[in-house]
Amino acid sequence: MADPYSILGVARNASEKDIKSAYRKLAKELHPDRNADNPKAAERFSEVTRAYDLLSDKDKRARFDRGEIDVDGNPTGGFGFGGGPGAGHRGFRADGFEGFGNEGIDLGDIFDGLFGGRGGMGGGSPFGGGGRGRAAPRGGNVQYKLGVSLPDAALLATQRITLSDGKTIDLKLPAGVEDGTQMRLAGKGEPGPGGNGDALVTIQLQPHAFFRRDGDNIRLDLPISLDEAVSGAKVKVPAVDGAVMLTLAPGTSSGKTLRLKGKGFTRKDGTRGDQLVRIELHLPEDDADLAQRLEGWRDPRSLRARLGV
Fold first, then answer.
1. Distance between the two ends of the chain, CA-based, in angstroms?
2. Distance CA 117, CA 109 (A)
3. Are residues 222 and 259 in the same domain?
């Protein structure tokens, strides 16, 4: 490790307050929770912590300045100080950092507003290494892209994904899933001395042949024939969770939208949107029989009057 004063960016005659302030600033910038995708930041955080551990101890700081111990707290070759068990780093306590004298620094004070509560890490050791351990860098995160069909996304169907180590896991989609939703799989990333990183899975909704997403709803254009439109009919309509029967009233016009309740996407509260079915009237081309049947018939309505023509 380099000179602890240089690591913290303070002068050799810096006061306890200056050292504490410098450490707070660097700890917030480099904390692993804030730099999950940057292993170098984790290493730098560990280095800053070791420097602070040395300089925050009045006795060890004085011995270091006199050349009796090195930056790791070990006796130098030119002096006969044995150091003993207490010569190592004091590290961290479960109730906060050991500071100058008996003052201490509370994690909740240092990381307040950044990680939530006591550093956002609950009780016990703040960095997961035991009551007096130091932060060790975690392995890197691994990014994945998972293509999901629109029906599967609407129904939150379980997806199978193969990780970089060849293992497969079944992934439960979250309610309210959208294109670009990112899911974090804790501990499924690269290994590291401080534990495995995470797997970050980004959901990519795949285009569908006839379904389209509209917010929490699903849209579908449904072709019908002239006789179905004129006389009315019961027609089968595809839906993400299986085909359903839809009743067309006599005289159903092209462009009319019908609603199938609860056949859309699953919302975050567990309810579902609807399926919106837009009617498309399809006439046959060059049908002589149809032309003969309609010969002489005219619709008496003025359908384009509202358009001013």
1. 85
2. 9
3. yes
pLDDT digit string (tens) for 225-268? 999 999 999 999 999 999 999 999 999 999 999 999 999 999 99
Beta bridge partners, 96, equal: 93
Structure-block tokens of residue 65: 């300045």
Residue with tokens 């079944």: 170
Which residues make Cβ contacts (< 8 Å) with residue 239, sequence separation at least 6?
Answer: 260, 263, 275
Q: How far is the C-alpha of 154 from the C-alpha of 50, rounded, in Å?
A: 50
Q: Which of 206, 221, 249 is the last residue of a domain?
A: 206
The domain in which residue 28 lies consists of 4-110
Domain CATH number, residue 48:
1.10.287.110
Torsions phi, psi of 87, nearest 5?
-80, -15
Q: Are residues 235 and 289 part of one domain?
A: yes
What is the pTM assigned to this prediction? 0.54
Q: Coil, helix or strand for 200?
A: strand
